[in-house]
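With this grant's support, we have settled on a layout for protein records. An illustrative entry appears below exactly as we store it:
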Amino acid sequence: MKVLYDTILKAKYTGRPNRFVVTLDLNGESVLAHLPNPGRMWELLFTGVTMYIVPHDKPDAKTKYRVVGIERDGVVIMLDTNYSNDVAQHLIENKLIPGWEEWRVVRREYTVKLHGTSSRFDLLLTNDKGDEFLLEVKSCTLFSKTGAMFPDAITERGRKHLLHLKELQNEGYHTGVLFLVQWDRAQWFLPDYHTDLEFARTFKEVAPSLDWKAVAVAWDETFTMPTVTRECSYPSSILDTEAHDSGVYVMVMHLDHDLDLEIGSKGMMHFKAGYYMYVGSAKANLTKRIERHKRKRKKMHWHLDYFRGHCEMIAGLPIRTSLDDAECTLADAVRGVAEWDVPKFGSSDCDCKSHLFGMTDNPIHNQSFMNVIENYRMNMLDELVNS
């Protein structure tokens, strides 16, 4: 089996100054490491988790080390997207992908011209009949207990790529996508309609036309080539019921000073410095509702409108769901991980104590809070998948 790295070290994650750099504790020393994966990975990057790093192979690199993997619940996960094509080629050539045993790789980064436009694909496959198969390879690092989703950030480029694959298929090419799910417990796969609804809608449209698969792979600490645990199922019916622009959301904000503020008819309210999580819902136009909350200048309507102008917006987290009582149950779940709440804020039309909750540190980096988001976005789908 091919070993991808000569020297692998373990370190503890401490922070992420930017998309491509993390800070680590390596045997008591604070070091910087290049992160060759631009995904958000909010569900993985928590203080103290184990990361796998290697000495940087470029002598003029700005960081001394490069990240190759991370642990979640004791499971080793590959993060180095530089090797995705190598992994895909290994799995294909060793006939480890169910249904693709006839194919073999003949070229990497293969370019095709169509209607005057050139497109480059990760792998060109062929079989004994001389057929050609244009394949794109994607690394998936967004997963829950038994599910996986892609992408973990909005990707208009990825959406257009899907449409291009379908166009080539219509022109007579054999095209497809291989999603390498870096989580050996994954049993099902869906496009992430919570994060990127347009990508999900496009995927739903083109998936029947493409030859695509999502396979769960298993790694160990040596980072030799992985094995395939299973081909993930595709419960497409969930997209029919859940992938709509409606549901609930959590707005994450930061207030850097104590504040006494008049909130509409509720009068003066006190807000102490810290991070805030506001839970709301939208029966339609969920995307526009979140974008409205992000803006500071607008007509005052909701309680949050008064508060928003005094704090920094960190993130808006949509949860697209058909559950009728999701707003109040989500508020209760967030309250369970928060350090305080603002009484009756945003809950005038329900029996909840509040819909605005606070904590000292950024909840995006708090595992308990992100577990709540994961539960509502993915783990709750398990029952639908198995029904």
Observations:
- The CA atoms of residues 50 and 74 lie 9 Å apart.
- The chain has a mean pLDDT of 94.
